[in-house]
Write a structure and sequence with these properties.
Number of domains of chain A: 3
CATH class of one domain in chain B: Alpha Beta
CATH architecture of the largest domain in chain A: 2-Layer Sandwich
Strand order of the largest sheet of chain A: 3-5-1-12-9-10-11
Oligomer: heterodimer
Shape of chain B: globular
Low-confidence stretches of chain B: none
Strand content of chain A: 25-35%
Low-confidence stretches of chain A: 1-7
Largest sheet of chain A: 7 strands, mixed
Mean pLDDT of chain A: 95
Bound molecules: flavin-adenine dinucleotide, iron/sulfur cluster
CATH topology of the largest domain in chain A: Aldehyde Oxidoreductase, domain 4
Order of helices and strands of chain B: EHEHEEEHHHHHHEEHEEEEEHHH
CATH architecture of one domain in chain B: 2-Layer Sandwich
CATH topology of one domain in chain B: Enolase-like, domain 1
Distance between the termini of chain B: 52 Å
Number of helices of chain A: 19
Largest sheet of chain B: 5 strands, antiparallel
Largest interface: A-B, 35 and 37 residues
CATH superfamily of the largest domain in chain A: Aldehyde oxidase/xanthine dehydrogenase, molybdopterin binding domain
Radius of gyration of chain A: 27 Å
Strand content of chain B: 15-25%
Number of strands of chain A: 29
Distance between the termini of chain A: 56 Å
Shape of chain A: globular
Strand order of the largest sheet of chain B: 4-5-8-6-7
Number of strands of chain B: 12
Helix content of chain A: 25-40%
Helix content of chain B: 25-40%
Chain lengths: ~725, ~325
């Protein structure tokens, strides 16, 4: 297959075979010679102090090497926080303080995993308990503004009071956990003062810096590897306790150590989507023009850090409304610090905002799609700046048409299929399209292959594939001639994989580095007197099947191999760092947009809801990896269905403890929960966002889905569910 | 996991002897429940006796026209066996409504009867739970009890029996054939097999330690064309029942000759609704009658703080399952 054909059909994952045959190795599968296994002991109280750790019984067990805790571990190099400091980031096993339930407080290191696990169950901890509070509702009165204050736009209060059509409602979302397939794990080894770790991480650089600081060593003495990540969704954006514990334990026993979280333990291996309580007030005139919008969001943080995510961004940026107020608050509870989880902030906020718009549409008796079109923001309503591109209107149009939205009857409970109630709902999603500096090295070898390297990660979206496609497009090489390497701190540095920015950041670096290598090749080719490549403008160079030629002059074709051989070179390569054009980007607002139309079928008698079909329209610039993009948008819908219908982390507030930390108790959707999903991509020609013209879409795809489902459930049943998830009991 | 000895035996008698003599020994069949409990530290046996290869996996007809299913037949094989599908389709539906295909391929019928509750506190050794640790208290009572019982619970425990299969077996008046430690055969009526928590929630059933389930008999009935298993759950598959109903009718020209109703997810054992069944006999099989039966079935329900919804849900599910049984 030529690369042009591959482009058209959309290539499959370049790492697909490795993944399905098991040769792609995940962190817990790596080992070092002489490696020992660490198993965590976690606290069983939510707040207090460790009075005593009795390890006698555990240490008697066969195979046990040592039980390590704050009592016997060597200190880290990080400065202790001031005793009265409110914000004191958590470093596991460094103090006697308990800040959340199931906090790691010791690690049993043994020759085998089973020996360590059993001995861990014999460690006895005595506590001095303190009163805890894990209930957001109970902490609301102590909520505080989280540093996202923005002045009102216009006068929302006055406009709301004066409005004829208005709604005010509260929306609540429970804590949710990422529940990726791969457990968080670290394998750590020290050799001659050099630390090497395999770690489940989304950010190689951050992890390297974190370890260097924690152990007071030079970055050059830390190597972090993370070649494959079995799903992370944000959970591996911060170094987890496993990282520091494995490294500390390995240092202590002078042997490599592997620490793998069990499924139960994973509930506190990383943070979670915080619980949120939101109030939306929306008002419109009789034509459906929004006159006032207030979005107030409060979510929990921990007792020791100020984690805040932006739930109210869409209220400011999605609709042309002259009077807007947003308030973001956080409140402390005695749980672990939350963490970004796919579409953080945005999807929670969209559930409230897009439900509220739907509620308003019934008040106004205006079709929900029509209401959105009447308030369509042609330019950023906050700053008046233009969008770099925005094909949301076209997303609405194409997805609505594909779905058959025009056949919808507006009255709730008006559509049926036999005994079932049918509901059609829609909503909108938005995601800021960021770009960060990133670097890549591109090497063309004399055998006509290329190697592309960047220290990014691939948590599943298909980064291996997308980067290979980008290099292939520039170099004119088929995919199988290109090897893309990632997941190693010794590779050219790139930012963490988060915020749907990898294609735009790393992809730009790969594109530019590939172009620069080609230019050097052309210069090599142009060294000879009379060469057609002499002083040729780079814009006139084209590549084809491993050769370079001057546009319009097929006879000039020279293969990479010939050029390198002629110059006695085994390869030619360079390292390039790309940076976003902040000046140009700054003149615009840059965001991806999407629209979801979906159908639910409800058996009202027993509260059973099925999302039978979804049409997802996406405008995210240029689509580089069609199959990957389709799979991301499908995944977004599945995540939205989980958030709307099934997912909830259950906390017993008396115990201050998460009670469903397993896949039987925490309900991610299963195949049987998922109906038909269609994706439509409306391409945007965007020269501003980055040289690739690509915006992020990995998170966008779920943003509108929970609201669209709640809206469809209302249309089907006449019941407005404002508290997720929409389990059968809520519909009886 | 606590270190344990693993033994494979060649006869039920050998297995019973080993387990009978050691309070910390367990039979292991499919292992789908026991291994989880061991990993969580909820059950800490020091000896496992593997009975999975004993030849107790036959499904065969009984002289009276009923069926006998072996204790070690896999849940999936049982559900798909022609004798079961044809003669007792509700049992087949109930089994297939449970767990996942992979788990059903491993799980055995004996193990299904013996599976322990899914109460979240029972599975978390860091929390008080009378069933796991008698006398430690019941965390569900004032805690998370959305999944708890609405019938037959006591102050010491409100856990529910999680099985789907057992709900159908209860409705079908199955009999459990057991071999005792002394080597005797003993028959336990299904209604007497599982027990209510009372003051001893640590005891799920009336089987003595070391006793082995050999087979389960289901007497002949005429329910096959007019029975239904209905399960309501938080997701479409791979979730335990919020409530479930096994409903079976024997009809004579639209008149009910016999009726069976058993509920799952509402009590410490599969819950038979005898009064509702009695009321149905002789009545016309119509929606109104079924509605009334459903009301009777739930009239004595006592919900806790978070599970009030189960009363309404179960009432509607009973009416619906009866309608589906009667195909109206
Ligand atoms: C994630 C998950 C979801 C599930 N969902 C459902 C569901 O929705 N509905 C449902 O009904 N079930 C469900 N199950 C439970 C499943 O049906 C049981 O785990 C299974 O039936 C147990 O059978 P087993 O052979 O694996 O038992 P094992 O795990 O081998 O044994 C369980 C217990 O039974 C004892 N035992 C086994 N055989 C005998 C015997 N012949 N005589 C005496 N004692 C014996 C053992 O000693 C042990 O104590 C689920 C299980 C899991 C793990
Ligand atoms: S309901 Fe029963 S199983 Fe659950 S915590 Fe209480 S005693 Fe334990």
């Amino acid at each position: 297959m030529t690369w042009q054909q591959q482009q058209q059909d959309g290539p499959s994952r370049v790492d697909g075979r490795a993944k399905v045959t098991g040769t792609a190795k995940y962190i817990a599968e790596f080992s070092f010679p002489r490696m020992a296994h660490g198993y965590l002991v976690q606290s069983t109280i939510a707040k207090g102090k460790i009075r005593d750790i009795d390890t006698a019984e555990a240490e008697k067990q066969p195979g046990v090497i040592k039980v390590l805790s704050h009592k016997n571990l060597s200190k880290l190099a990080i400065p202790a926080p001031a005793p009265d400091a409110v914000v004191r980031p958590f470093y596991a096993l460094t103090s006697d303080e308990i800040r959340f339930n199931a906090q790691p407080i010791a690690v049993v290191v043994a020759e085998t995993f089973e020996q360590a696990r059993y001995a861990a169950s014999l460690v006895k901890i005595a506590y001095d308990r303190a009163a805890h509070s894990t209930d957001l509702r109970g902490s609301l009165d102590k909520a505080f503004v989280s540093g996202r204050e923005q002045p009102d736009r216009g006068n929302p209060e006055e406009a709301f009071a004066a409005a004829e059509f208005k709604i005010e409602a509260e929306y609540t979302i429970p804590i949710e956990h990422h529940n990726a397939m791969e457990p968080h794990a670290t394998v750590a080894s020290w050799e001659d003062g050099k630390l090497t770790v395999y770690d489940k991480t989304q950010g190689i650089q951050g992890t390297t810096g974190y370890l260097a600081a924690a152990f007071g060593i030079d970055r050059a003495n830390v190597r972090v590897l993370s070649p494959f990540v079995g799903g992370a969704f944000g959970a591996a954006l911060r170094p987890g306790p496993n990282l520091i514990i494995a490294a500390m334990a390995a240092r202590e026993i002078e042997r490599p150590v592997k620490v793998v979280y069990s499924r139960r333990q994973l509930a506190t291996a990383h943070g979670y989507r915080p619980e949120s309580i939101q109030i939306v007030k929306a008002a419109a005139d009789k034509d459906g023009k929004l006159t006032s919008l207030t979005h107030q969001a409060t979510h929990n943080t921990s007792a020791y850090e100020n984690f805040s995510e932006n739930l109210v961004g869409m209220a400011r940026g999605l609709y042309a409304c002259p009077n807007v107020r947003t308030v973001s608050k956080i409140a402390r509870v005695d749980m672990q610090t939350p963490l970004w989880m796919r579409a953080p902030g945005m999807v929670s906020g969209a559930f409230a905002l897009e439900s509220a718009l739907d509620e308003l549409s019934y008040k106004l008796k205006i079709d929900p799609l029509e209401l959105r079109l009447r308030n369509y923001a042609e330019a950023d309503p906050e700053t008046g700046r233009p969008f770099s591109s925005k094909e949301l209107r076209e997303c609405y149009r194409q997805a609505a048409e594909r779905f058959g939205w025009s056949k919808r009857t507006p009255e709730p409970r008006s559509m049926r299929d036999g005994k079932y109630l049918i509901g059609w709902g829609m909503a909108t999603g938005m995601w800021p399209a960021g770009q960060a500096a990133a670097s890549a090295r591109v090497t063309i070898n004399a055998d006509g292959t290329a190697r592309v390297e960047s220290g990014t990660t691939d948590i599943g979206p298909g980064t291996y594939t997308t980067m290979t496609i980008i290099a292939s497009q520039v170099l004119g090489l088929p995919l199988e001639k290109i090897t893309f390497v990632l997941g190693d701190s010794e590779l050219p540095p790139s930012p963490a994989q988060g915020g749907s920015t990898t294609t735009s950041s790393v992809g730009t670096a790969v594109k530019e580095a590939s172009e620069l290598v080609l230019k050097e090749l052309a210069e090599l080719a142009g060294k000879d007197e009379g060469s057609p490549f002499r002083e040729i403008d780079a814009a006139n160079l084209i590549t084809e099947d491993g050769s370079i030629l001057v546009r319009g002059r097929p006879e000039t074709k020279l293969s990479f191999t010939e050029i390198l051989k002629k110059n006695n070179l085994g390869h030619i390569g360079l390292l390039h760092r790309s940076t976003p054009d902040t000046g140009e980007r700054g003149k615009y607002v840059i965001a991806s947009h999407g629209a979801q139309f979906l159908e639910v079928r409800v058996d009202e008698e027993i509260g059973n809801v099925r999302v039978t079909r979804v049409v997802q329209g996406t405008a995210a610039g240029k689509i580089i990896n069609p199959k990957g993009a389709h799979s991301q948008e499908m995944g977004g819908v599945v995540w939205g269905i989980g958030m709307a219908m099934t997912e909830k982390t259950e906390v017993d507030h008396a115990l201050g403890r998460i009670m469903n930390p397993n896949l039987a108790g925490y309900h991610v959707p299963v195949n049987a929960d998922i109906g038909r999903i269609e994706t439509i991509f409306v391409e945007e020609d965007d020269k501003i966002v980055n040289p690739l013209g690509a915006k992020g879409l990995g998170e966008l795809g779920m943003v509108g889905v929970p609201a669209a489902i709640a809206n469809a459930v209302f249309h089907a049943t006449g019941k407005r569910i404002r508290d997720l998830p929409i389990t059968p009991d809520k519909l009886l | 996991m606590r270190p344990f000895a693993f033994k494979r035996v060649s006869s039920p008698a050998d297995a019973i002897k080993i387990v009978g003599e050691n309070a910390d020994a367990r039979f292991i069949a499919g292992g789908t429940n026991l291994i989880d409990l061991m990993k969580e530290g909820v059950d800490l046996p020091d000896e496992l006796v593997d009975i999975s290869r004993l030849s107790l996996s036959l499904v065969r007809s009984l002289p009276d026209g009923g069926v006998s299913i072996g204790a070690l037949a896999k849940n999936s094989d049982t559900a798909n066996h022609p004798l079961v599908r044809r003669g007792f389709p509700m049992l087949s539906q109930a089994i297939l409504a449970g767990a996942s295909p992979q788990i059903r391929n491993m799980a055995t019928n004996g193990g299904n009867l013996m599976q322990r509750t899914r109460c979240a506190y029972f599975y978390d050794v860091a929390t008080p739970c009378n069933k796991r640790e008698p006398g430690s208290g019941c965390s569900a009572k004032d805690g998370l009890n959305r999944y708890s019982a609405i019938f037959g619970w006591s102050d010491s425990c409100s856990a529910v029996h999680p099985s789907d299969m057992c709900v159908a077996l209860a409705a079908l008046d199955a009999v459990v054939n057991v071999r005792t430690v002394e080597g005797r055969e003993r028959k336990i009526k299904f209604a007497d097999f599982h027990r209510l928590p009372e003051n001893a929630p640590e005891k799920d059933n009336t089987l003595a330690h070391g006793e082995m389930i050999i087979s389960i008999d289901i007497p002949k009935n005429n329910f096959a064309p007019t029975s239904h298993y209905l399960k309501v759950r938080d997701r479409a598959s791979y979730a335990f029942a919020l409530v479930s109903v096994a409903a079976a009718l024997e009809l004579d020209k639209g008149t009910i000759k016999q009726a069976r109703i058993a509920l799952g997810g509402v009590a410490h054992k599969p819950w038979r609704c005898f009064e509702a069944e009695k009321m149905l006999v002789g009545k016309k099989a119509d929606a109104e009658t079924f509605q009334e039966a459903a009301k009777i079935a739930l009239q004595d329900a006592k919900p806790l703080s978070d599970n009030g919804y189960k009363v309404k849900m179960a009432e509607r599910a009973v009416a619906k399952a009866l309608r589906r049984s009667a195909r109206i």
